[in-house]
Please model this.
Amino acid sequence: MVKGLHHITLVTSNQEVNRRFYTEVLGLRRVKYTVNQDDIFHRHLFYADEKGTTGSAITFFEWPELQRGRIGLGSPHHLAYSVGKVDALPMWKAWLMSQGVSVNGPYGRDDRVSLYLKDPDGVNIEITHPNDGELSQGYLEELDKNLPTIGEIRPEMRLVKFNHATPIADDPNITVKFFDKTLGLKNAFTKENPDQPGTSILAIGNEEQPDFLRYITSDAATRGLVGIGNVHHIAMAVADDGEQLKILKKLEELGIRNSGIIDRFWFHSLYFRDPHGNLLEIATKGPGYTRDEPLEKLGMSLILPPWEESRRNEIEKFLNETDNKNPIRWPPAYPSIRSPPESIIPSEKVPEERVVMDWRRQV
Model:
């Protein structure tokens, strides 16, 4: 029933810096400018391809008051975009460096070639393309020495859609069982993480996309903190309300605490947590972002769900006050990307009383 990723939602500290980075530096389109429906005095920003295609949307809650996040259990490591050609990767590196962005790579893995960068808030982003085994690390290093001159984002560089998201787990066995029983997703492979000995990459997905979730697993993984610069939740797509309802019934049968189905106007949502505290969402493909504004005007003005329209003046006043207290710095001082990029840096011990088997975490 699960078709792959629907969207990935993160936390930003400044909506205007966020907008400029994702539209001007990464070349995405803002397809919805709205508010967090659970916290209506803070913005919710959506960026995607030109049509707002399912599986291409990265979204942000603007919470400038929040503290910086920390990667770990319950706070995923990174997200990855696909590009259409491997030749786009040196172009991306040249472009990003010209914009002052911290970027590492290309790294040759056994199944893909990737660059890694950080956005202004410190979000880890991977840009990747499949590796058929013919591209050695030596060849990639030669490419890196001869980067092209790039003055704009070329059509062949366009970010196609999400490739995967990478949460963190401390028990691979329970992770595999959880996805099998709840969503019918399978473990495509488990292999050593080349960036950190003692950790593994655990692939979860369907037949068409066998690794749209690539967990980094380690029995020494520590608790994370969702905050500025971190993933808030990962949304997976289903075709329609009927498929979503089937998943809700399965969650209820297994005793997994969930939000119930929530009308988000542009899609319907169902939230729950995996055994490691990562917040997951099941979202329907429709009605879509053009339900309340034409395709050519997507993201150009503040759009509210109909049930909040009567509070527009109050909401806009609060957002203006937020902007007055939240100055814009452009260009930003980009954080440095770590090398190797997919290592887990321990930050704190997980309390011993945490029960990994408890699937009934509060949403």
User: Anything to note?
Assistant: Residues 347-363 have pLDDT under 50 and may be disordered. The chain has one domain: 4-324. The first strand starts at residue 4 and ends at 12. Residues 4-324 form a domain with the 2,3-Dihydroxybiphenyl 1,2-Dioxygenase; domain 1 fold (CATH 3.10.180.10).
